[in-house]
Amino acid sequence: MKIIAVTAMRHVKSLIFLICLVFVMPIQAKTVSQNGSLLLTPSHGMGSAWGKANCQSCHALQRLHETVPKTKAIVDKKKFVTCTGCHGDNGAKKTEPQCLVCHNPQDMPANPFRTGKHRHDFDASKDLPTISRHCVVCHDASNMNGKFELDIDLTTFSDKPNKPTETPTPYKDQNEFCLRCHNRNHQQKNYPIIHAGRSDQSIAAEDDYRKIDKHGVPEGLGDGIYNGLRGEYNYKAIVDCVDCHTMHGTTNKGLIIDDSRKGVFLLDSKFRNKPYSVNLLENDTNYSQLCVLCHNMKTVSDGGEIDTGNGLSGVHFNNGSDCVTCHNHGERVQKGL
Q1: Whether the predicted model's global pTM rises above the 0.70 cut
Q2: Structural domains of the chain, count
C-alpha cells in the first residue's frame, strides 16, 4: 500500500507540474523576452527547469512563438535545435549555441547578409566557416528584437583585461567595442591578435582611430577643400568601423563590404538598398568603389565625373587612381579630407 501511495503521489506531482507548464510557462516565456535578453537564467521555470538540456520535456512545439510567425515558421521546421541560439544553454554546459540554424542565407538571408567567403572567423591566416560559437563572442546577450542596442547586443569586454578585478565598462559607440580587441597593448586575453606586423590595421586600428584617422575621432574644422558627402555623413562625424568592414561575409579582403546593404548605415535607405556593389579593383588595391558610396565631390575635378565601375562617380578617378594612394585608411595628412 505504501508503494502504491508513493507512486500515486508522484503522478499527482507530475500532473501538477504539467498544469503549471500549460498555464505558467507561456507567461514565463513572455517575461524572459521582455527582460532585455532572451538568455535563460536560473529562474527558468521558477528554478525547476534550469540545467535541463531537453527542451521538449517541458515545452510543446506547437505552443512556441505563436505570436511571432516568422520565428515560429523556422522553429516548426527545425524543431528544438533552434532553442539555444536565442536562449543560451539553460545551464546545461554541454549544450552549444545554434545561432546559424536560423541566421543563414536560406532562413534569414538579410539578418545578417552572409555572402562571401571572407568573414570574422577569428583566424586571420585563412578563411574558415563561421560557427555558432564565434557568434556568441560578440553577441552573447543579444535580445533578438531586431534593434541593435550597444548595452544589450554586444558582449561587454573589459578595456583592461589583464586586471581581473576590474568592472567592465559600457561602450560609447560600436567602435569602442572593436577597439577592445584591435589594439597593440591591451588585447583580450582569450582573443589575442597574433602574427600581425606593427603597421597591420588589425592592431594599429586604435592608434589611427584616436590620433590621426579622420574616420575616427575628428580634429580641426572639417572644412577642407574636398567638399561633398552623401546621406547623413559629415566631416565632423565619426564613421563606424562597420560602415566599411562587415563581420559576417564579403568577397573582399580586409572584411571590406562588397555590397552597400552590408554597411554605410548613414546613407539614405533607398540609395543604400539599391544596392551598389563594391569591388576592390586592381588586385585588391583600389578602394574607389568603397569611398564613392559616401564621398561625392561638389566641385568636380580630376576625374570626379568618371564612373568608378559600380554606377557612382564623385571621387578622383582620373586614370583609375585609388583613394588610399593619398588618403590611407581615411585621412592622415590633409586637414579636413
Answers
A1: yes
A2: 1
